[in-house]
Amino acid sequence: MGYKSALAGIAGATAIALVSTFAASAQEAPPAGTIVDGSLKGKTLTFVSYGGIYQDGQNAALKDFVDKTGVTLLNDGPTEIAKLQAQVESKNVTWDVVDTADLPPYVHCGTLFQKLDLSKIDVSHIPAGQVGECSVPAMNYGVVLMYKNDTYKDNPPKGWKDFFDTEKFPGIRAIDGSGDPIGGLIEQGVLADGGSVENMTPADIDKGIAKIKALGPDTIYWKTGAESQQLAESGEADMILMWTGRAMTAVKNGAQYTPVWQDWLVVMDQLTIPVGVKDTDAAYALINAYLGKNAQEVLTEKTSYSPINNEAQPKVDPSVAAFLTNTPERVKQGYQQNIKFWVQNFDAASEKWTALMAGN
Amino acid sequence: MSQTIDTTAPGGSGPRQANGVAAQPRRWRLAAYPSLLALPAVLLLIAAMAYPLLTIVSRSFSEPEWGLQNYVWFFSTDVNIQVLLRTFSISAWVTLVCVIAAYPYAYLMTVVGPRMRLVLILCVLVPFWVSGVVRTLAWVILLQDSGVINSVLKAIGFGGVKLIRTPTGVVIGMAQVLLPFMILPLYSVMRGIDLRLVQAARSLGARPALAFWQVYLPLSLPGVFAGAIIVFILALGFYITPALLGGPRSTMLSTLVQSQVLSLLNWGRGGAMGVVLLVSTFILLALAAPLMRQRHKQASRS
């Protein structure tokens, strides 16, 4: 072997080494669903969510992760941002991975929630536009307009314009009054008022809320998902804003209501890691396992919420499938609120929403 | 001092004597400071009540910065004033309903035989042991537009009434939840009233209504006041029942505090709301106190 070929060999080896290093750094994030056997033995993680069948389903989705990594998974809840704030302020954070509503991770990014290091989790299968600086989605669902079959018979409402039109579509409305302002509904109020949501200003919040108030004094603001379901099952309201999961259960229980899918409001829960957790890498490992195809299939099968991994093929019965929001048709019909606007105007919107809830 | 006692003490075994001597001043000290007996309770109250309360008060003045801004905000926002007044008026209605419902019930408890009394007590206590949320949900089923009350009214030919999501519905639900707090103090006072006093009034020629009005009622007033204060104060802080049975026009202050703290993380404003409610409750009680003392004197004089 000559000198030249030896040099070429070294150059070749270097090139291969370089390429492989490069490839490794580009693919550093382990694919979603990765579980490393025995990697978290002796460690404890606390997972916080909203309880009920939802948290049970999340635990079922994480069962593989818990069994194989050897981690001890503790559950807590329900998620309350005020409690989390108290933990972060006292520098004693016991919540490692927290499931939140859709806006808080944007409002408190960097202060209560860590900015996520995307080299540690694989977000390539998450639906477009749902990964925030401090959050990945935990599941998808929707707020959907359900109308009472008996009331509207041959001329049912077809969208939010009809929802806001109390002359052509008389009847009692029921709205999600469980907490934070429903940005999507306020935007639809602005649209029904003839306005535009292209460049929303704080004045538009007043317009949208005025439109909701104009629905009349009989409007019901339900406080819990269970209450909305109860309203549907007893036929108390003619049009009800419902979470898809609750709508599905109500229909299954015999509620005579039909969903309007045009411009259903896209909502999600978020997964976050609080600032100051003791073992960030373990928290990332949990989230990455949660995002996997299998985990998401289990989650949907147990909870009927839509998976956030686009490869997931959950096996569900038709009544559940009818309310999943991740089919191509539903994705096309969905209406995404202007998250940026609502995060920037969160305090003003909350104050005005609270006033609406308190009868003003 | 212990030495003087030691020298004057009568004879006896050494250790016993020493023990007795040591115990004596200790007993003296306890007798001199009987308030020490309250120490465990006081410590508990400081840790679980005073300290958190002070934190709330101080945060209401210090967040986001030192000053009165949270109170200025409270009193310059129409919603807050309106909801504060509504909170007091709903609590007053609840108290009134409780007095009217509890008074004859408690009286009945004092006049029936022991077995019947047990049944009546159980009727009060069993719902009391059931979670407030469950009872409130039961009221939802009874009061809603398609609920039991409205179905019955419609079936017998009356029009429906709007009960749920109105202040009336909230008052009904809260009164039921709070009724035991009125019945029990009333009963304990009424049990102590000597019924022979009423008989004496009758034998002196008073008609039953007058005997009740001039003798029995004044004697039972301490129970009415005790129950009314407990019910009124508990009602001021109610959260679940108004949230589930009420609509926007029956929102109470605790719901607004909740939204300030839990969804806006505005501990300062939430604290200020709590302090306003607390202080206005104190003012109201201070106004009611002389009235109560006077009535009480009247009752004991007769």
TrEMBL record, chain A:
Molecular function as annotated in GO: thiamine binding; thiamine pyrophosphate binding
Sorted UniProt keywords: Periplasm, Signal, Transport
Record-level GO cellular component terms: outer membrane-bounded periplasmic space
Subcellular location: Periplasm
GO BP, sorted A to Z: thiamine transport
Statement: the UniProt record of this protein carries the keyword Isomerase: no
Entry keyword annotation includes Signal: yes
Signal sequence annotation: 1-26
InterPro entries: SBP
UniProt record similarity statement: Belongs to the bacterial solute-binding protein 1 family.
Protein name per UniProt: ABC transporter
Organism: Pseudaminobacter soli
From TrEMBL, chain B:
Annotated segments matching region Disordered: 1-20
Subcellular localization: Cell membrane
InterPro entries: MetI-like (IPR000515), MetI-like_sf (IPR035906)
Transmembrane segments: 36-61, 81-106, 118-142, 170-189, 210-240, 272-292
Gene Ontology cellular-component terms listed: plasma membrane
Keyword terms, alphabetized: Cell membrane, Membrane, Transmembrane, Transmembrane helix, Transport
Signal peptide interval: none
Chief subcellular location: membrane
Family: Belongs to the binding-protein-dependent transport system permease family. CysTW subfamily.
Protein name: ABC transporter permease
Species, as recorded: Pseudaminobacter soli
